Amino acid sequence: MIxxxxxxxxxxxxxxxxxxxxxxxxxxxxxxxxxxxxxxxVPIAVSVVxxxxxxxxxxxxxxxxxxMVPSLRISQLQNSSQTNxxxxxxxxxxxxxGIESSVGVFIDGVYRSRSAAAILDLxxxxxxxxxxxxxxxxxxxxxSAGAISITTKRPEFEWGGLAEASYxxxxxxxxxxxLTGPISDKLAIRLSxxxxxxxxxxxxxxxxxxxxxxxxxAFRADLLFEPTDSVTFRIIGDYNKIDExxxxxxxxxxSPATAFAIGGPPPTFLGRTIDPAGDQDFSVxxxxxxxxxxxGKGISGQMDWDFGGxxxxxxxxxxxxxxTSETDADFSGAAIITNPQARDFETxxxxxxxxxxxxxxxxxxxxxxxxxxNVSSSRDVIFGPDARGYTDGLTTLxxxxxxxxxxxxxxxxxxxxxFAPGTGVFGDYQMDNVSFSxxxxxxxxxxxxxxxxGGVAYLDDKKEVVGTSLLTDALSNINLVQVGFAGAFQTxxxxxxxxxxxxxxxxxxxxxxxxxxxxxxxMNPPPACNSALAFAPLQFFDPQVNFPNASExxxxxxxxxxxxxxxxxxxxxxxxxxxxxSKGWKASAVNxxxxxxxxxxxxxxxxxxxxxxxxxxxxxxKAKFDQGYINVAVFDQTIEGFQxxxxxxxxxxxxxxxxxxxxxxxxxxxxxxxxxLVATFGLTYLxxxxxxxxxxxxxxxxxxxxxxxxxxxxxxxxxGLRPAGISKWSIAxxxxxxxxxxxxxxxxxxxxxxxxxxxxxxENVPAAVSSRQVENLNVSVGFNWENGFEIxxxxxxxxxxxxxxQAFPTTAQQGSFTGYLNEPRTYxxxxxxxx
Length: 835
Known about the structure:
Layout: H1 2-13, E1 29-30, E2 37-38, E3 46-50, H2 51-57, H3 62-65, E4 72-76, E5 83-87, E6 103-107, E7 110-112, E8 125-132, H4 136-139, E9 146-152, E10 160-168, E11 172-182, E12 187-198, E13 202-204, E14 210-211, E15 214-225, E16 231-245, E17 250-253, H5 256-263, E18 283-284, E19 291-306, E20 310-327, E21 337-356, E22 362-383, H6 387-397, H7 403-410, E23 424-445, E24 450-471, H8 480-493, H9 499-504, H10 506-516, E25 555-570, E26 575-586, E27 589-590, E28 608-609, E29 612-625, E30 628-647, E31 652-674, E32 677-692, E33 696-697, E34 715-716, E35 729-740, E36 745-760, H11 767-770, E37 771-785, E38 789-796, E39 804-809, E40 817-821, E41 826-834
Parallel strand pairs: 6-9, 13-18
Antiparallel strand pairs: 1-2, 3-8, 4-5, 6-7, 8-9, 10-11, 10-41, 11-12, 12-15, 13-14, 15-16, 16-19, 17-40, 19-20, 20-21, 21-22, 22-23, 23-24, 24-25, 25-26, 26-29, 27-28, 29-30, 30-31, 31-32, 32-35, 33-34, 35-36, 36-37, 37-38, 38-41, 39-40
Helix pairs in contact: 5-6, 8-10
């Protein structure tokens, strides 16, 4: 993997040059090892996408990068802040603020702890580096699957800038601008900003409004101060905002019962509009507006001091981020359930490191990283005015009209108690997270051809969590087994079930206990069964326990020593070989949602999941020829305790997968048969497996192994199963043709194709409705003038390929499934002027 990704990144980056592409790979500088090296020198599995490639491909944000890097996947789910980064099939953290991402995102060396802080329009870029495999030794926190490092262009001491405007379908209008220049002979500034507006490509058939629109803007100020030749200071401030109607989801399958309960004729049923399943035509039926707002701001300061032989670097940063969202959680035209959420983050980071400079027999680096974050989160699930009518419709379809009212009367509850509007579950959570790491690395040049590297890091993490969950859903609050016991005991003895009466009648108590857990059926009719158990499917929420509690103190501590061993050998002037053995770690995760409960002592399921431990073996070769190069890499990556978090219909189930691995290989190549033509081809093969998952939650695997979960078993052994959502084959290929038209004008044509083989997107949705295969084509044509003027026409997803990003069980609608679709075909024109 090291070898192929080194050259795979080069294959991407060099497409922007008109000179022979392969000859430029030695000029691409990366900082994957926290020191500047060329792409060919650094023994890391890293791809590099440069600014010109991003411009030629019309990449608007990080989502678009995945079509250029085969092992990178980025998905957006129910709102703009819920973004998931995945490298080599591993990644999590999108749907819960207590579960941090396994892929760290860094912008100008500053760790962005939340994926939402990195999804805005890309600023004035120098390059994007994608590092594969665990990076815990040098990058520290939350990089157990990999890292994405974004480097922006520094201020310059000569006046210059960029002005760019784009117009596309869906009335997309994008403006970007940047201005840089000197304030004095030692102080330079760069100001940049962008706006991005677009109509939505989903249509809400209820009111005709657009969904999945774009309405975002960003501003950034960057100061560079060079008081001496050996000392530099860089201060960056940024502010960004999103205010969008998002996100649409289509019905993949409507169960007959829920579809009729919502769409059937009144007064027995609701008579509401329901989105037809399976058409996937970007139409939805939402009775409530889906909107999300996100604001982020921050400031960072970096100092570099060259002592001569060593350089001291300090990076200090503080960020604030807040987002709110409102989701029509039943995804229908009925007002059954809404899901408002709000999150606030305050994050302080400090990194300091000292590294040798120059070319030495032994190069060294030592440093430390400190992280302090406060998280405030609220997540509510609230019944609407149609909730009671919907559930009454379900009981009618089951042949028990009025069953809820009868049950209310039996419990002496007022009519309309169950599913009353405004009831539900309300969760508020606070998490304080403090972590630090101390790290170091040595690179020993044994001979002119062989370099051995070793790095080690100590990581320490502490989370303190306080959570309050208030369950006001009357039916979910009822212990149906206790209700059945009370009724059976009184029927048998004629006595109320007081402690004294139960103690005095042990035989009757034993018989009542047996009856209380027996569902009614033709084989077990009343009174030998508990008829109250029939209401269990309508108990949409588990009993809630505040946090901390008797079982959990709310404090999670962990520490780990990680390390990396590498060998790089120049077999010849044209062939290099690499080997890497690396250990990675990610600290415990906490379920900051209303579904949390104390951990089960047998299954281990509960509010928290333990750390992730990663082991990587990787070997690769790279060969360079006159017209390009070819790279082959083989890797074996294992994660013990992978933090699995799956939505099951009304909330999330968090659990550690005992051991999950992915084995694979990659082949990537660049071929330049003639100066104007550059072709790249990248192939990734992934073979993932749950090596050990003995206590897999049944609720998370109903689409894979339902037979193993019969009889109400909470868990089963998923060992040996293939994890969902990871395509076996991925291909990313491109072809760029550049042709001078005159002494002052150049034209280019570019095409990219991204392929992912068929895969079931998630374990708890059947493959028949959740399969995904990607065949994505992007094309562009541009004209560049010598004076910096450029005009470009572009089309992304030119084939209008449609596929699922993710699927999930529809909220409170057993047997129904919903999914998020990729963007349709987009096209437009961009005009750009550099000066």
